[in-house]
Amino acid sequence: KNQVEQSPQSLIILEGKNCTLQCNYTVSPFSNLRWYKQDTGRGPVSLTIMTFSENTKSNGRYTATLDADTKQSSLHITASQLSDSASYICVVSGNTGNQFYFGTGTSLTVIP
Amino acid sequence: DAGVIQSPRHEVTEMGQEVTLRCKPISGHDYLFWYRQTMMRGLELLIYFNNNVPIDDSGMPEDRFSAKMPNASFSTLKIQPSEPRDSAVYFCASSLAAPALGAEAFFGQGTRLTVV
Questions:
Q1: Calpha distance A73→A41 (Å, rounded)
Q2: φ, ψ at B100 (rounded to 5°)
Q3: Cβ pair A44:B107 closer than 8 A
Q4: Test the B interface: residue of A5, A100, A107 with most B CBs within 10 Å
């Protein structure tokens, strides 16, 4: 069964600290993996998209890694800011058709 | 471009009433997606269109739900009759190319539906 699991479910960190969010998936065959940031009351916004051959991709203070062998991805946030408070969603696409498999998200709260 | 535009932003309706949600995708995008988001189930893909043609509607929960895309710049998601369990945030998204090829999907602000 194709699934995407994220951990932790929620996380609270101090402003300026780093954190890492995890995403494990069982989707096969695999096409790409995306990390989205969703602010409260808004639609998700793409942070990174990685294909099978990519191990890491950065977008400012956000760095995503992918291990296609172990089917794991992580999103590392460096020097967190209050504006990083949001839900982070991992989405995996299979390469048969255009199916998406969503994680339930990690809720991050950055406190001053 | 103003991005994906959804209307209304909020909708409160009584059980049994018909509800129509609207979406205007980004101009030139060939793919349009309808999603539903709840606290319990997270984001779920309901249906998607390619060049105005419905490709996969396997996520549509039941016959009460229907979606149309009469032209490249407009799509609707209709629920008739609505039920309290339909309460959720409904998102529309569009992309320039097939997501399987890594194309980025752009989401609208969503419509928060409450059925009482």
A1: 26
A2: -65, -20
A3: yes
A4: A100
CA nearest B31: which of A68, A33, A93, A9? A93
Look over chain B and give the mean of its residue pLDDT values, rounded to a whole number. 94
Q: Using a CB-CB distance cutoff of 8 angstroms, which residues of chain B are in contact with residue A39?
A: none
Distance from CA of B107 to the nearest CA of A (A): 5
In this structure, what DSSP letter does residue B103 have?
P
Q: Which pLDDT score, from 0 to 100, does residue A11 have?
A: 97
Pair A88, A80: CB distance under 8 Å: no
CA-to-CA distance for A73 and A22, rounded, in angstroms?
6
Angle (CA) B49-B95-A40 rounded to 5° is 105
Contact A99 B45 (CB under 8 A): yes
- Residue of B53, B48, B40 whose CA lies nearest to B89: B40
| Alpha helices (runs of H) in chain A, residue ranges in sequence order | none
Q: pLDDT digit of tens for each residue in chain A (112 aa)?
A: 788 999 999 999 999 999 999 999 998 888 899 999 999 989 999 999 998 889 999 999 999 999 999 999 999 999 999 999 999 999 998 876 567 889 999 999 999 9
Amino acid at B75: S
Q: Looking at residue B1, what is its pLDDT? A: 63
Report the C-alpha gap between A112 and B84 in whole angstroms.
39
Chain A residues whose CB is inside 8 A of the B102 CB are: 31-32, 49, 51
